[in-house]
Each structure stands twice: as C-alpha cells, then as structure tokens.
Amino acid sequence: MSARDEILARIGKAVAGAQDVEIPREYRTTQQVEDLVGLFAERVDDYRAIVHVLPAAEVPAKIDELLTGRRMIRPGGDGWEDLNTADGVVTTCAVAIAETGTIVLDHGPGQGTRAQTLVPDYHLCVVRADQIVSCVPEAIARLDPARPLTWISGPSATSDIELNRVEGVHGPRTLEVVIST
C-alpha cells in the first residue's frame, strides 16, 4: 500500500458513518465602496507602485511623458520593440480590483502576451475608472476563465530567508499605473 493509499484509508475510516453536512456557500460577490478609484489607487500605492489619477483628457499626454526616451513594447500598436532590448511595456487591463489593488490582464487587445508583461523591467498599465470593481468575486464574474490571466499586485517582489525584499525577480521591477477618470 502506498503512503497516499494509507492516508486516504485512514481518512475514510475516520469519517465513516458521519452525516453529510450542507455547507452554505453564500459568499459576498460585491462590496459597497464609496470611492473605487481612490481605494484602488491607495492599495496600488501600498504595493510600492507609482500611481497617477488623471482626467481622461490628460492621459495621452501623461503616457507620452512617461514613455519619452524609453524603448517600449506597445501591444497592438506601432513601435514594437524586441523583448530582449525593450525597457518596458505599456498595456491596458481587463479589470482592476479596489479591495486588493490588483490588476488583471487577460491578454486581450492592448494587453500583450504574458512574456511581454513579465520580462521587461518596467510596466506602465493604463486603467480606466470603469474597469475598477470592488472585490475579487466581482472581478472573476467579469473574466473569461478560458483566457490566460495574469494577476498583478504591485511590482514583482520577493523576500529571501532573512526577509530582505528584492524587486524584479519574477517580473517588472517598476509598476506605474495611470488611472483614467
């Protein structure tokens, strides 16, 4: 008998004769948030990302300013840079979550491939206010589970055994977010 079989047999013996119990699955699917944009911006900032909240009319000029002098990957646009030589990537997103400060890419139009969003050292993501939802269940309801999803909560960061934070190990070292209101 394998260790797996032994463990499963012990579990089966322990629960033999136990009554089936109905487990309520009444999860919260939305959350009331007065200022979705403000909460999202605050949470993204908590992750050490750079955040700009701007009126929609000012967004193109801000993007031009932020990209000046950088070799950027621009999914779906002109000026594609080679993945190995690009300074960064500029994308849109599928949805953003206020409660967690998370940006979700489904790699649709304007979002590039996973490699394009994880290899460069800099990621500029443009988020429209109408893409921000209150909580994770609300985000999941908007997403297609058949699409490749990348969930981004701040710049890539990890800590070693001594809890020294290192950024840029598993993705962009710098995340900059422009929120268009």
From TrEMBL:
Signal peptide: none annotated. InterPro entries: FTHF_cligase-like_sf, LUD_dom, NagB/RpiA_transferase-like. It comes from the Bacteria. Residues 82-179 form the LUD domain. This is L-lactate dehydrogenase complex protein LldG.
